[in-house]
Amino acid sequence: MERLKRILNRFLFPGTAAVLLSVPVAAALLIYTFSQEKEYSLVAYVSYAVSAYSLIIVCAFVARFPKQGFKEALHRNRYIHLYLTDVSFKTHVSLYISLGINLLFVAVKLFYGVYYRSVWFATLAVYYIMLAVMRFLLLRHVNRSGIGKDFVSELRRYRMCGIILLLMNVALLGVVVLVVLDNEGFYYAGYLIYVVAMYAFYNIITAVVEIVKYRRFRSPVMSAAKVIKLAAALVSMLSLETAMLAQFGEENSAQFRMVMTGLTGGCVCLIVLVAAVIMIRQSAKQMEKQKIAEM
């Protein structure tokens, strides 16, 4: 009986990290299931089981700490506490996660580009490759020197990311041209488009807030990471618009869809261009000041 209780306790309370990890895993499995229309496949049944288990352990986790509160429960885990309180550690972890997601996007876009012989997916793959390169450069610096310890080196990475953003704008322009001229875009099955919309809006809002918020730390690496996040979020919004026009804009003319996606795509390209120019100019000014101070 005691053994059964221990097993049940372990099943319901696997640990804070496992509870938090179960949510994105379950979400990813469900998104894949519905986007690929595999509702009756083995993957679907696995995703349903994982989602049900995730819901159970999340509810059990919240119910276990009625007096402490959810926030206090999170801080019990050393790594989660560090993530919530240490900005440098949070940036480090975020770079690892975003780089991993980036590489996954690159693999998917390249596969679809080759499989369907699609210039659209190939161009998107190039865009995500450049995002991954910038994140890799920042992560490499953080692993070697940390954050806030070598200001000049951070400025160099900041400037390099600005230069890559300028080059990336060419790929982004290609994405916009394909959307406008060839009517390329995304289609999400069923209610998945609402999930994608929430994710896209969340990304764009948090990216803008974090750019403003992290300026006070005066770390070029942190600022570059947030600008890269904004660039990725802007493309997510553009992709969402193409999907929504395809799914809900059947009554609108093809010319209306071209104008709307063209305007949005132009604004996205302009924002990325301005961000790149600002990064290059700011890094140049700061590096000049550092040289004068050292003389």
How much helical structure, as a percent, in the residues?
over 70%
Distance between the ends: 76 Å
The chain-level mean pLDDT equals 82
Oligomer: single chain
Strand content: under 5%
The total of helices stands at: 11
Order of helices and strands: HHHHHHHHHHH
How many strands in all?
0
From the spread of the alpha carbons, the general shape counts as flat
Radius of gyration: 22 Å
Structural class: mainly alpha
Unreliable residue stretches: none
Strand count, sense and barrel status of the largest sheet are: none
Structure report:
- With 295 residues, this protein is mainly α.
- Helix content is 83%, strand content 0%.
- Helix 5 (78-85) packs across helix 6 (87-115) and helix 7 runs antiparallel to helix 10.
- The termini are far apart.
- The mean pLDDT is 82.
List the main descriptive attributes of the protein structure presented here.
mainly alpha; 0% strand; flat
Briefly summarize what is shown:
The mean pLDDT is 82. It is built from 11 helices and no strands. The protein is mainly α.
Which SSEs are present, and which pair or pack?
Layout: H1 2-12, H2 16-35, H3 42-64, H4 70-74, H5 78-85, H6 87-115, H7 119-145, H8 151-181, H9 192-213, H10 220-248, H11 254-294
